[in-house]
Amino acid sequence: MFEQGTFLYELWVSRWALLQGVGATVLISLLAILLGTILGVFVGLVLVYGRWASRFVVRMYVDFVRGTPVFVLVLASYYLLTQIGIQLTAFQAGLVALVVFCSTHVGENLRGALQSLPRGQTEAAKAIGLTFPQLFVYVLAPQALRQALPAWINTATEMVKASTLLSVISVAELMLATKQIVARNFMTLEFYLLAGLIYFLINYAIERAAKAAERRVALPS
Amino acid sequence: MGYHLNFGVVWRNFDLLLSGLALGLGLAVVAIFIGCWIGLAAAFAMNSKHATWRRIASGYVTVFRNLPPYFLIVFAYFVLPRLGLTFGKIETFIVTLAIYGGAYLTEVFRGALLALPRGLREAGLAIGLTEWQTKAWLIIPVMLRNAFPSLGNNFISLFKDTSLAAAIAVPELTFYARKINTETFRVIEIWLVASLMYVAACYLIAAGLRFFERRLAIPR
Q1: How far is the CA of B153 from the CAs of A115, B9, B39, B148, B150, in angstroms?
Q2: Which among A24, A4, A1, A3 is positioned nearest to A180, based on CA atoms?
């Protein structure tokens, strides 16, 4: 079963390269969603509560990023940041692109959730004398998070999908690892199918988590 | 730093960039056209009486929604030829994008079909149309009008995904941007202009879609 030249043998030989690839894909996606969420919450809050000047700037940022394909963001970040004197590794440059991409998704999602809350909630909170921070923390945020949660989990799928693009700028995540393994053993079909299976399993798990969250947070009707 | 902006190179190659943008739009239009047929078939299959059809359709949606589009394109372009299936770059890309987009369109159409009143089909059958005539002349037109806004959003995201065609050397906008980038090193200018072109195209498509959305909306 483990003779040289069989798939299982080649799989065993390249196990560390594959595991590193999967690890890099997961790490990139996790970091992108974590940092992107921090930035995205800021983006969403400015879009809803900012003064018009800051709102205008952030709106431009969101529309610009959302109108640009992720692939262009990744390439631009890779070539451009070095040019303006920011020395980053390919990994970091790709991560910057994904964080920016993620922040606009999270920001828009949060904006939608906050603005969908009925005005009466704010009015009632003001009527009982809550200050704005209290209003936000005790009244608006819990309800908005409930609404935003399923879409937020789905953003993780987008990040996993977008992480494949980092292979183009020589980050050894799962796609590039597969490409390198295949270049050595020529088992193109087998190893790409394996990569596809891994991507599917990661994203399927995220999708199930989002569906479960959706059921969990649904208001009883 | 010592970097001085100079858009000269970009303007001299602007016709290339424009042709790339036009090709990207063309790819997206053909892909969504094919994807709509796939999506329609799969959406009807999902509402079918037969469990086998439902299972095939939902399997298709689950698998293709959860695979990265870049993976699909690399797979179609570098792996399928090793099985003896060789197609041109552009054909491969369009079909791959159509199958990927079709999975999302299936969900759109399925939702729109479920939202239709039952009376519609019953009315069609009552005036003597066959099951297929009812689908073609009543159900699909009404459903498409309802699905139009989501269809438009999917078109915009498929258009953005055409940038992936650069990875298999289809000469669209991202491909030319990369080419000019490596040839001239006018890094900031070229990426700024290329992304502005994408943004402008997306904006114009969205504005056009909103116009048609108002025209097509079912008056209430």
Answers
A1: 21, 34, 15, 9, 5
A2: A24
Whether pLDDT at B54 is above 90 = yes
Domain count of the fold of chain A: 1
Structure tokens at B174: 């991202």
What six digits make up the tokens of A156? 């993780």
| Interface test mutation site (partner B, options A163, A200, A204, A206, max chain B beta carbons within 10 A) | A200
CB contact under 8 A, A196 and B74: no
Per this entry, what is the length of chain B? Answer: 220
Question: Are the beta carbons of B66 and A200 separated by less than 8 Å?
Answer: yes
Expressed as residue numbers, the domain containing A196 is: 17-214
Is the residue at A173 inside a domain? yes
Q: Is residue A148 part of a domain?
A: yes
- Is the pTM for the entire model greater than 0.90? yes
Under DSSP, the state recorded for A135 is I
Q: Are B67 and A203 in contact (CB under 8 A)?
A: yes
d(C-alpha B138, C-alpha B130), whole Å: 11
Cα–Cα distance, B150 to B213 (Å, whole number): 10
Nearest to B198 among A67, A199, A204 (CB): A67
Looking at the complex, does the CB of residue A135 fall below 8 Å from at least one CB of chain B? no
| ipTM confidence | 0.91
pLDDT tens, position by position, B79-135: 998 888 888 999 999 999 999 999 999 999 999 999 999 899 999 999 999 999 999
Look at residue A221 and tell me if it is in a domain: no
Record: contact B177-A75, CB cut-off 8 A: yes
- Fold that domain B12-216 belongs to in CATH: MetI-like fold (1.10.3720)
pLDDT in tens, B181-209: 999 888 899 999 999 999 999 999 999 99
**Is residue A167 one of the residues assigned to a domain?**
yes
Q: How many CB atoms lie within 10 A of CB A11?
A: 17
- Dihedral class, residue B117 (left if φ above 0, else alpha if ψ from -120 to 50, else beta): beta
Question: Tell me, what CATH number does A112's domain have?
Answer: 1.10.3720.10
Q: Best residue in A22, A75, A175 to probe B by mutation, most B CBs within 10 Å?
A: A75
A160 by Cβ neighbours in 10 Å (0-12 / 13-18 / 19+) ranks as: buried
pLDDT band (50, 70, 90) for residue A1: low
Q: What is the pLDDT of residue A85?
A: 82
CB-based burial label for A116 (10 Å; 0-12, 13-18, 19+): exposed
- CA A113 centroid distance within chain: 18
